[in-house]
Each structure stands twice: as C-alpha cells, then as structure tokens.
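Subject: Sanity check before I submit

Could someone independently write out the structure tokens for this chain? I want to compare against mine line by line before I put it in a report. The sequence has 496 residues.
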Amino acid sequence: MKRLLITAGIICCAYTAMAQVVAAEYFIDTDPGAGNGIPVSTGSGDVVTFNAVIPTAALTNGFHMVAIRTKNAGGQWSLYESRGFYISTQTTSMPDIVAAEYFIDNDPGTGNGINVTPISNGATVSFAAAVPTTTLAQGFHMVAIRTKDATGQWSLYENRGFYISTQTNNTPDIVAAEYFIDNDPGTGNGINITPISNGITVSFAAAVPTTTLAQGFHMVAIRTKDATGQWSLYESRGFYISTQTTNMPDIVAAEYFIDTDPGTGNATPVTIPSGQTFNQSLALLVPGGTTNGQHFIAIRVKDANGNWGLFDFDTLTVSGSIPVTGLTLTARRVEHTVLVNWFTLTETNSHYFVLERSMDGIHFSSYAQSAAAGNSNNRRDYTYTDRQPFKHLNYYRIRQVDRDGRFAYSPVLLVRMNEEQPILVYPTVTRDIITVSGITSPVRLTLYNSSKQRVQTINGNAPSVKVNLQQLPAGTYWLLMESNGRLLHHCAVIRQ
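---
Independent answer below. Compare away.
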C-alpha cells in the first residue's frame, strides 16, 4: 500500500491572549471546506507538533497536493499550508544529489539560479549557503532552493519568507543554539551546539548522530538563544533513516524522443556503455515529419534492474525539407467501435503509418499498420476502425515512418467509451493559445512546468477551453485534465 507521511510543526505565536490550537485536518487536491477535511490528532497548545500518516493507495500516479490547517479554541480555522507530491509505482533507489541552487523572489528557471557550492554528492546532502541581501529592498522576500540529481533532474524548490530591515540597533546577539530530535524537551534542555560565534547572525554546522534512531521518519529541530536569555521558535525538518546500503545498479540502456513521449521503452534506442555513469556525445536522428523550428528533445536511461529513469531534456532547432506535412488525427466512438481517421497534406518518401493504442496514455503498443502514399502533393486520407476498444479509456496516436527509417508522432487523442467525443489538445507546440475540446462535464485544467511546479489552473465546463501560454516562459509544460477527482487526460505542451 502506498502511504505518504507528513511531519508538521504548527506554531501559534501569541503576543496577547491568542487562543490555543486544538484541532487539525488535511485534504488532498480539492478543498472540502474548513471543518470538512480528514481530522488529525494534535493535542492542544500554543505550539503543537504531530505526525500524520496519509494513505495514498487510491491516488492515481502523478502530481497531487496535500494541505493541512488547524483550529483554535475559539473555533477559528487557519489558512491551509500545502505541499505538492508525486505518486509513482517505481521503487528503484533514487540517484545521488549532485548540485543545488537558490533564487530570491523570482524563479529564473531550473539551472539558472545561483549555484551553491560546495556540496558533497549523495542520496542526502547537508550544506550551508550564505545568501547576500545587501541589494534587496526593505520588506518581505522569499528565498527558494532546489537540488539536481545525477540524472540531471531538478527537484521542486523549497521556499522560506524573510524580512529585510534597515534597523540595526537594539538587536541582541545570538549566544547559544540547541537541537532536538522528534520530541521537544523544552527550551534550554536540547542538545547544545558548540562552538558558535556570537553575533546578530551566526553560521554554524552541527553533526547530528543518528546511530540510535529507529528506521523510518524523524524530525530534527533547532533554535537559538539571544544575549537577553530569550529562546527563538524552533525550525524543523523531516528526515528518513534507512539501513539500505546497496550500490546503485548500472545503467544499461538509453532512449530519446522528440516533442511527444511515447512511453518508457518505446522511444528511439541509443547505444551507450554500461556503468553507473556515462559521458559521451551522441548522434541522434531527427524523426521524419518533424517541422522546421524549435522542438523539445528528451533522453532517459534504464538500469540493470529494468527500471527507467526520469527524462532530461533540451531544445533543438530543425531546418530543411519536411517529409510529411499536415499529419492530422481524429477519432470518435461509433456505437461499440472507434473510428480513427488521419490525413496528410503532402508526403515525400513516406513509407507507412502505424496506429498505436494505449489505455493509460503512457504505454503505447502498435495496433494496426497502413501503407503510405510515398510521394504526394495532395491531401491523402486514411481510416481504421477499432472493433475491440478498451472498455473505458482509449488513447490513440499515429507513428508516421519514412523510407529512411525516420519517424514522427501525431498528437495523442483520448476516446472514452461512455462519451460521444474524444478529448483533443491542439496545438501542442505554440507561442500563445492551446485549445482543449471534447469537454462534456465541468473540468479543472492544471499546467505544470518542467520542474513539476503548478503554474496555472483553469476551471471550465464548455465544449472547449482555451489555455493562454503567452505570459509563460518558453519551455515544456505538462497539462492535466481532471473531473470529479478523476484524471481524464494528460499531455505535454511546448511554449515556443
């Protein structure tokens, strides 16, 4: 069973008779309203610390959001605090963290932040970063940090707010610090951290022994004391103790795709040397039918256990002749079958078309094949009837293959056997607007960037919904479409 464990420290700061925290609740993805979430046992007090084990077995693979809020003795609910997380059935050990970067206020995009060095590579890393603030305006700001693993994938960022003030008088020095694990022994009773250099700000590293801790999740917290004897609130972080020390399996295979992910194991293979890492230049063929202009290219690797990693990607510019133009796919339900049609406007050395089908939109298999016109300057129409579609969801796409072996994919269409029309997203490469059609019930469209951060959410209930990408930076985004808590469609779109 998949379960998500969150550790929460809810702090209520009181200057004048603030009511105590007496209850807490959480929800996933959709806010049911204050008081209607899933209750969490917290105890009561101005400061409460608790662990909540959240079952995730019923959640689909992909991105989700968990949020938590608290209620005080006066019956008032707080605003909620949310975090994104990802559900996956993959159990392979995670690759090492090899780099980190931070930014202030505005996200410049993954890889464009301010590099943090040095860090010691590993599955977990501990480091301190001195962030200069002399150029920042007085007021509130946000600092965020993220890490990159050995496969080149950047994590989501973790951010904290802070305040810049020009006031430098009457601020007592910090003179002591302490930490504790899991249970707060009370201010002054934690484990002392020495030495620290007294000052308004201090920087220090503390080695926290973990040999006596049980395997599983724990929480470490730290606080400081000033020259007047006042202790600060603590800052906490969760961590995980594991006895697993197995080396990572070797990388044994690689594959790449352009623009549309055909699913792990279905992209174009690349020959690489086996090993935990590899570094080589690759000559990659651009599939036939790829239009002139900028495109998205991605590569991923497979280990000796048969597990595929996440893909890393970049952009490329294509120029030259176009073997096939105007490849357009449509599909619709006809009673208990699905009628699939596609056409081309021109063809040059086109060999054949493969109709591919999937029940999840990720893992496709070849289902039917049709000979191409070869060379044509006129529109050519093709059709196929799927007489045994899957019971619920049917994803379709066309793989167009040239005589030289190059190929290209059409956009992916979804046909639901209990709906009259498929869901269609077009165009998937654009500078401004994409359209989602085939909507028969209220839906929520969520757009994530390449760092898996939510950048836009649109609610719609019309036959079609427009998604405006004009205000977003160029890059690849993931579009998820949900209705009544159920994932209806997902695909990649590219903002040029």
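---
OP: Matches mine. For the report I'm noting this point. Residues 211 and 241 are 9 Å apart (CA to CA).
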